[in-house]
Amino acid sequence: MAAEFSKPTHYWGDKFDSFEGGVDPASILRTARETAHALLERGRASDDPDVIERLVTYTDEHGIDAIAELWARSSARSLPGALWRIYLLRLVIRQDREGTAFLFQRGAERLSSIDTVIAGAPSPTGPDEIIELADRILRGAFTGDFAIALDRAASFARILAAGCTSLADDADPVDAARATELTLRASRYALTADELTACARLHRADSLD
């Protein structure tokens, strides 16, 4: 892992999945794969709740940069790519719990899918509930079926995309710049949802590496 950071680097919703980690992706590909497998195996091999919590909250103490250097440039359809997206999604949520809870509620109201059921969100989903949900999804990657954790994260991102799209529609007549920003965020969340869904399929086929 990279050196520890005293404060986490902040990534707001409009920057989601735009961080570029590492200088040469080819030079860190093998390390990314090995560290992702090692981290997942460490969590799955442990029956100590404290170990799992340290894995879940790692970026709270060390910052996202500590894993970004290793994983951010990995293929979206790979184990390090999947873990990177779950960790980054959790960080974005924690840095704006009120805004994320609002987006989630709006998206859940607009979607006619079962994504809210898959994500496992309580109703209503306030700031505290949204934080706990993000933690439960990441915790499930280490303690449960990894493919299910990926599906839950994908549904979470898909709901946020719907919320952004709905707010963009509201803003469009009065604030075109804000509408464009929200539309871009929706696109990023939707892409992340698709990537996590693809990773879940690969994992079930024993092909996620």
From TrEMBL:
What Gene Ontology terms describe where this protein resides (cellular component)? DNA-directed RNA polymerase complex
The alphabetized UniProt keywords are:
DNA-directed RNA polymerase, Transcription
Q: What is this protein called?
A: DNA-directed RNA polymerase subunit beta
* Organism, as annotated: Microcella daejeonensis
